[in-house]
Amino acid sequence: MIFYFSATGNSLYISKKLHEDQGKELINIAHAFNNNRFCYELEKDEKVGFVFLVFFLLLCLIIMF
What we know:
Layout: E1 2-4, H1 10-22, E2 26-28, H2 29-34, E3 49-51, E4 54-55, E5 58-59, H3 61-64
Parallel strand pairs: 1-2, 1-3
Antiparallel strand pairs: 4-5
């Protein structure tokens, strides 16, 4: 499962490449946040990845909360 947040499309591009390579489900963090979807179930031994942008060595606010 790959969670991503993309403001300009760069993180989305990388997320899609990871999805193509690994076949994992993509979760848009902004859409999940707006839809109050905060719980996800993982399959046994499934790995979780996060792709997001960084502003001046800080996480953007939506990722921090």
